[in-house]
Design goal:
Mean pLDDT: 91
Strand content: over 45%
Low-confidence stretches: none
Radius of gyration: 26 Å
Order of helices and strands: EEEEHEEEE
Structural class: mainly beta
Number of helices: 1
Distance between the termini: 43 Å
Length: about 190
């Protein structure tokens, strides 16, 4: 079996974070006073990917087979809605946080995986005993990791709060063995 998927993702994000005092939000009949805007971000990004899949199987008997599957997977990038634009670092250390640096702080890249599986499936006793076993391995790149970073809100060099941020880790692997089975021990006859 051969298959493929082509994905085109367009992600847009608007993050507006504000701090008010003086009562309920204007949406609930209040009239609070705005004391800070910690995020005012609009961004858009396009992500695309071609993900192939191939599976080869062989029937050992009428009731059993072995198979091998290889597939690629893709999870598009985006923007972290928890991020605070006021916490964006000065990546180039020039003393000014630019719009490009804020964009880079808020945006995270796609996650990709190469997945391999080898397995065996069988049925015996006229379908009363069914079982399968598989070994799998998944190799991820640019894993999307939600987390937090410290923020120095008053410029004294000490992080006094934190904000959410999603970053891409280098790589991760998942490997395992799976067994599944079912058996019919008795059948009711009415």
């Amino acid at each position: 079996t051969l298959g493929a998927r082509y994905t085109e993702d367009t992600r847009t994000s608007q993050v507006l974070r504000r701090t008010f005092i003086g009562g309920f939000s204007e949406f609930f009949g209040g009239s609070p006073i705005l004391i800070a805007t910690t995020s005012d971000f609009n961004g858009s990004a396009d992500f695309d990917d071609f993900s192939p899949r191939v599976s080869v199987g062989y029937d050992i008997t009428d009731d059993s087979n072995v198979y091998f599957t290889y597939a690629q997977g893709f999870k598009g990038g985006s923007f972290d809605p928890r991020g605070q634009t006021t916490a964006a670092p000065d990546f180039d250390q020039d003393g000014t946080v630019t719009a490009d640096e804020i964009y880079d702080f808020m945006q995270f890249d796609p996650e990709e995986v190469n997945s391999y599986e080898v397995g065996y499936k069988a049925s015996q006793f006229g379908g009363k005993l069914n079982y399968s076993a598989a070994v799998f391995y998944a190799d991820y790149t640019d894993v999307q990791i939600p987390g937090s970073v410290g923020v120095d809100t008053d410029g004294d060099g000490v992080n006094d709060t934190f904000t959410g941020v999603t970053t891409n880790a280098g790589a991760a692997t998942i490997a395992g063995v799976e067994f599944e089975g079912s058996a019919t021990f008795a059948e009711a006859v009415f």
